[in-house]
Amino acid sequence: MSNEVIWDKLNEECGIFGVYGHPDAPQLSYYGIHSLQHRGQESAGICAADGKQFKYHRGMGLVTEAFGNNELEQIDGHLAIGHVRYTTAGNRKLEDAQPLIFKYSAGNLALAHNGNIVNAKQIKHQLERQGSIFQTTSDTEVIAHLIARSGYERIEDAARESLRMIKGAYALLIMTENKLIAALDPNGLRPLSIGTIGDGYVLSSETCAFDVIGAEYLREVQPGELVIIDEHGIHSERISGPTPRAICSFEYIYFARPDSDIDQINVHQARKQLGRQLALEAPVEADVVTGVPDSSISAAIGYAEATGIPYELGLIKNRYVGRTFIQPSQELRAQGVRMKLSVVRKVVEGKRVVMIDDSIVRGTTCNRIVRMLREAGAKEVHVRISSPPVKNPCFYGIDTSDREGLIAAQKTLDQMCEYIGADSLAFLSVEGLVEGIGRDDLNPNRGHCLACFTGQYPTEIYEDADDQYASLV
Fold it and tell me: Where is the Glutamine amidotransferase type-2 domain (predicted)?
């Protein structure tokens, strides 16, 4: 049984990292994707080029596992792209690990993608009718086929034409033997930043990776922008005209590392503000505030500071639990959360506890944590969530494509409170979320995607393979 079943949290698709113009590009990419490990733990890969050929390796598991037998020593080049993956579209097998590598009429092509293409099935269906043969189940392969079929000689022209045909979320790195291209979807649903290191350039899903390798932040890749890096330097083109920004709110709430900045907003500080806002909206009399590690700690500190209730480490995370483990009985399966978390009994015993978490998906993990706190002697357990209720599926790269699995879509607030066994339960409002993150953006929702809370999606959503988007190809 995988930890995803036991550890009831949202999972994001992946992280991407690229380097151009550095003699140690593969090694920098290794440290880069290791810094992005929190974005995907199922597979990891790096592809490098020296101006003439590709050298690459992909493997299943964590970065250290995928590159555990000196594979990195066999990869060299002055440009490289890396990828860590969590599956939301496609299967969990090595063939779908990225970067995806292809040979076509113009040479070699490598792609690393973060996000989800909502009309991939439609395009794939039409391409297969026209004779294309797909080697993976990944929606990323659709982009490669579109590029290969393009009549343009320049890779940037072929990429721009291809990306205009797809809908959804993509932060994308495309590499040839001598060029590195980055692209962001017109709504900017996923983050992607540019940095510099020496005379070279780096690109990353999160800025925390820049700090690890000693790179300096330059700027964000803008929504609908195509960034080309080659021997002539860095320049950009437009994929599309102006489109309202709609960055995924959960990048700030949960996915990104606290030491990352997204669109120049520090994630830790944003989460603290969410906690402060939650304290304004849902105060409660209590003796101690604690957060579910790790992503909820910042919000818990903010809640404690705003209410004056002491913050304590009431829950401790075991960082050495693998992704899978044997559970021979139902009784042991029920103990799964205990392998991930421990309660500090002396902190909660006899106390009224406010437990801060960033979200509730199915409710099973929250129920078990509340039970653990009570078993450790907590007199009361009040649950406060630093995001609104997740009531709608995500089609952009988060594993919540089924509304039936979302507890907030099936139960009232009182029913959820009863299910998790808390004395009280409250969520942050949508307005409080937007205010707490504090983006200075004139676009609707101040530039956030709020679809999982409101059901209002920033792009069209297509589910049947024979719908109108097949005619785009």
Answer: 14-232
Instruction: Locate 194 and state its tokens.
Output: 């540019």
For 145-198, how does the pLDDT look when each residue is reduced to its tens digit (9 = 90+)? 999 888 888 999 999 999 999 999 999 999 999 999 999 999 999 999 999 999
Cα 92 from Cα 141, distance rounded (Å): 15
Rounded Cα distance between 192 and 15, Å, is 10
Domain boundaries defined on the chain: 3-244, 266-318+328-438
Distance separating alpha carbons of residues 136 and 256, to the nearest angstrom: 28
Closest CA to 462 of 9, 14, 126: 126
Helices (runs of H) and strands (runs of E) counted in the chain: 18, 23
* Catalytic residue list: 14
Facing residues of 196 across strands?
201, 216
CATH code, 3-244 = 3.60.20.10
CB contact at 8 A, 324 and 2? yes
User: What residues form the annotated binding site for [4Fe-4S] cluster?
Assistant: 248, 394, 449, 452
**Binding site as annotated, residues:** 248, 295, 357-358, 394, 449, 452
Q: Which residues are annotated as a binding site for Mg(2+)?
A: 295, 357-358
* CATH code of the domain occupying 266-318+328-438: 3.40.50.2020
- The type of residue at 22 is H
